[in-house]
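Summary: Need help interpreting a holo structure output

Steps to reproduce:
1. Submit the protein chain below together with the SMILES for zinc ion.
2. Request a joint structure prediction with the ligand placed.
3. Inspect the structure token block that comes back.

Expected: a single structure record containing both the chain and the bound molecule.
Actual: see attached output.

Input attached:
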Amino acid sequence: MEFLIERGHDGPARFGNLKLGTLSIPTPTLIAGVSIPDVKLAYWTVGRDAEPESKQRIAVLPSLATIDSGVVDRINSEEAVLLPSLPPSSSLGPEFAMALLREQLSVLDYHGKDLAAPHAIVRIPPRLRPEDMDSLVSEFAKLGVRAAAFLIDGSLGPEDMRSLSLRARLPCNWLALALGRVNPSAIPMLCYLGFDVIDVGRAAGAAFHRVRLWPMGSEDVAGSGELRYCPCHACMSWRSMADASSRIADSTLISHNVGVYESLLSESVQAAHAGHLRYLVESMTHSSTAHATILRVVDKRLYGYLEEFASTSGGGVLPLIGPESYNSPVVRRFREYVASRYAPPKHKKLVVVLPCSARKPYSDSKSHKLFTQAIDFGLQRARHSAAEAVVTSPLGVVPRELERAYPASVYDVPVTGDWDAEEVSIAGEALAAHLAKFDRSVVVVAHVAEGYEEAMRAAESRIEQSIVYTTDGHSATSKQSLEGLREALRDLRDVLSLPAGPRDELGEILRATADYQFGSGAGEALVTETSALRGKPYGTILCRVDGAQTCAFVGATGSLSLTIEGARRIAPLKRYWVRFDGDHIEGGSVFAVAVREADPGIRPGDEVVIIGADNAVLGVGRSEMSGREMCEFERGRAVSVRHKVG
Ligand SMILES: [Zn+2]
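--- attached output ---
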């Protein structure tokens, strides 16, 4: 058995190939007992089930005692072996869970590498303490084990949460199996959380109890009521054969049930390829409160795991429809990056706080064109003194300079002006943190109404600056409100004696984007006092320092791409570096096998600096995986190289 991970990510979800001998099964995939037809991968219990003819199978050992040399000899190179555990292990405490793992370890140790490296799948009991797992997993890894199975009881309660938390601690290059009573609606979430093989044995169990499974919920077909219509092949052929009184056959139910799992798996895989798996997971939260609850807990407890694999760039629209999006990894990361990395230009005397628009980027919207006109008119040649901050849910605050950064440029939310308490609190907190970065003497011009105003008022007690409200309280775009904004700005220009001066929009966009992408200090390193900037705000902007280009801002993606000179300027910050094993990059890629070390802060989609053993810059490019994966994987493309030295 061998597991190879391929390119591409959507959160922790990944695509791979499970090789059993000469057979290769694309993952994520489904697994079920040998008696269930139509499922690619089968498990069979040694000594209980007849040995199946199919080669795509995993042998389940019923007890540790059954692993004698006879069994080991019988296992061929095309088979994986699921190590035994005790059925009620989920109800036993952490000491017992640890003892079970130690027992599996000692059996493998005894039988040596013949069994461990190519075949064994270790079972992780849900009650295992996370810290115990880390140490035991490294012992299994020393023996060559690269696969682990986790128990799912299907309740999506605390017990399942334990298994999910343990899954998050598995090394990146291990195969992860979810075994147990998995409902169809859990398939997208299990894929999202990085399970590669998912048990759908429940298809048969449900059929036995006369239950037809659906993507959301199930249907009892034992009664005499009318059956729900289904266009699947199994149900259609049963319907065409049956008269009105005949019962739906068990075999039909199994085929239908498997079909539902297959359909959700294929939907999940397609969504993952499109970068929309998280959205599919969120939409499944409407199938039950248990779903909604566990996603909230997952977001809270496993944020680090979800975020580590969430891409920092993306195409297409990012739909954020309900409360389950408020703390999704890309949303929360945006808030945290803005809070920790954005630094306002020092000369600002005013901050104009504006509401977001449905259209992105904001400055292309009708409302923002009106705001811009009003600000230009009110401030005239003192326009450079004003910073703009756009309040939005659930991203919090988007500084104007970052309106094209991912995901600010692509998120889509219902813009109604009515906010719930959580949205008000999230935006209020972001506003307070944002405004705290400005000098106390700065005046905050709050051109906000409705939910936006509520967020502003919620933050008021934590804001040190004076605040001037300028809308009529109902609409930021009404004639009266826009007039209010113009007048307030004109008055402030006089009262504060704001000086006339040139605007530095290009420099502000470049510096803010550099800090957002690479962390504090990057803006100053790339765009200096002597920089020559060319381009259009939010279009393409080129930056040259002392005659050499350092970076380019690409409006379409809202991100910076570095030149070698830019990489040399960023390198001393010691962030976003990948250490290459060699002194010269061949071709257009750096593969994981050639990566010695990498900044663990790297996410898929980041602009990264490739350095050699002596820290010399060898190239720049875009990461295809997280920093930890670059170090742990033995294959796969780690960086797509854009520029290289020599
Ligand atoms: Zn059907």
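--- end attachment ---

Reviewer comment: Residues 396 and 427 are 4 Å apart (CA to CA). The longest strand covers residues 2-10.
Status: needs-info
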